[in-house]
Design goal:
It comes from Rhodococcus chondri. The chain is built from 18 helices and 14 strands. By secondary structure, the chain is an alpha/beta fold. It has a six-stranded mixed β-sheet with strand order 8-11-12-6-13-14, with helices on both faces. Strands 3-7-4-5 form a four-stranded mixed β-sheet, with helices on one face. It is elongated and about 115 Å long. Bound molecules: adenosine-5'-triphosphate. Adenosine-5'-triphosphate binds next to α13.
Length: about 600
Amino acid sequence: MLDWGTVVLDSVIWTAKAYAITVVVFVAVLAAVVRFTRWGRQWWRIAASYFDPRNGVGGLALAALVLLFTVFAVRMNVLFSYWYNDFYTAIQNLDEPAFWRFMRIFAVLATVHVLRALITYLIGQTLDIRWRTHLNARLVDTWLRTGSFYKDRFVESPIDNPDQRIQVDVTDFVTTTRVLSMGAVTAVLSIVSFTGILWDLSGPLTVFGTEIPRAMVFLVFVYVLVTTAVAFWIGRPLIQLSFLNEKLGATYRYALVRVREYGESIAFYRGEGVERGGLLSKFAAVIRNWWHIVFRMLKFDGFNLTVNQTAVIFPFLVQGPRLFAGQITLGDVMQTSNAFGQVHDSLSFFRESYDDFAAFRATTIRLNGLLDTSRQAGELPTLVPSAQGDRLSLSGLSVGTPSGKPLVTDLSLSVTPGQALLVRGPSGSGKTTLLRTIAGLWPYARGGIDRPAGDGLFLSQNPYTPLGTLRDAVTYPHTSVHDDDALRQVLEKVALGHLVDRLDAESDWARTLSPGEQQRLGFARILLSEPAIVFLDEATAAVDEGLENLLYRTLRTALPEAVIVSVGHRSTLDSFHDRVLELQGDGRWAITELVR
Ligand SMILES: Nc1ncnc2c1ncn2[C@@H]1O[C@H](COP(=O)(O)OP(=O)(O)OP(=O)(O)O)[C@@H](O)[C@H]1O
């Protein structure tokens, strides 16, 4: 029985004690899971950084608060359960003053309950949002800093869809960690608290001539443990199915994105038919897997629903005879039903969370994959060019493909400020790869590279145009503010005068501008950022020879001291360069002086 006169103080003491024990047990279980299970280790690898006190105690403090409110919620449930007993007993006794007293008590309980629920929600969301922000920043940073965003193609098993892992999985990881862990805490605390209540309420039961003391308690445990074991067995394949579901869905989405990105090329090829076939077959794979999930869920949910329905009448069946024999009150029966429900639901938590847990494991595996790839990409040997002097010097440089085919062997040369080198050779001979190596992006190279100190700028045939305004596109990758006059002047110089009034227009410029205009935009970028070395990889292939002439001349006039390395096939380029490096295949090369 509960003394409603001292309930506040009793509840504070109860919550404090339960909280202390919960914290100790929670930390111990967490440590054991992390130490002894594979998924625990994978989880910790992702989760640990947010709770590291060196990154601030905010994470730990929020988690401690969430845990406190979880414990308090169980206390509230216990109070409601006693209220049920006393309230129904008052009704059975036709005790009107007691009836009204318990109505008043209920009003207080309900108010506290509502406030507790709202505060719990707020704290839970605050934890989620802060953790998510931290994790997102960490993954984006790792992905970019290790160079994984472009080097992942070189690692042993490249991952699919890193974008989805960062955007969707981070949110799922954070929310599911909180919901599942606090669900487990609630379940265990409720099992302990309500088993005590059931123990006091239950009597012996005779089954097949044997008397079972405290039957209610044993029956609920046997019932739920057996059903949980069966549910785990039925639900097991869901882990793999849910992993596949995410993977296939992301692959389908990526295929759709590609059609959008390359829409014009596909339309020129009249490739709709092929694309449609490809898209539908990817979607069919999603649906096939989804049917597997549906049939598995039918078994899983069918079993869970049956188990839950049976549990509704279970306590009445057992306690009914004792009520009619006058051994217990109506309040006792109602509290039994309530406590049985609590123990049953809590024990069932582990069974019913199985599919959430399955999805959670898949999320954890995917995020670990992202970290693994980033680590492997970061560990790839990269020839880091030293950027000290004023010239580009290559000494004994050898470059190959990932499969070991030589592209350039033992190349030594020097390009001094104001000089320009033209790289030529058949398609696939390694021209772009040589530029990649000099930029420090290619892992399969050895030798020495010295490049001029200061910025370098690389322009490919399709210069990258970021999302945003034209101003962002011209100044990329520098966000420093240039005044409008300077921007207008460089646009005029590269024959983009018709765009000067649209500097602040937001557009997908990569689609709006023609390839030739995008190449000129690239030159505008060079003029603004004034790099010490410029790499031009067929950077004028989409403009006519007259414009090419204009762009190279403007570049030379504006940056007379810059080192220029170009790749290109046109003979008209010769007049802007001092030497030609000819890549002849199988690593062979030759250097010829040009007469300007
Ligand atoms: N990420 C990669 N993985 C494996 N092989 C690659 C990769 N990138 C380039 N290669 C190979 O390296 C070789 C050189 O490629 P590269 O792009 O440097 O040639 P290129 O001379 O610039 O050709 P093009 O004139 O056609 O642009 C090619 O055989 C290409 O298939």
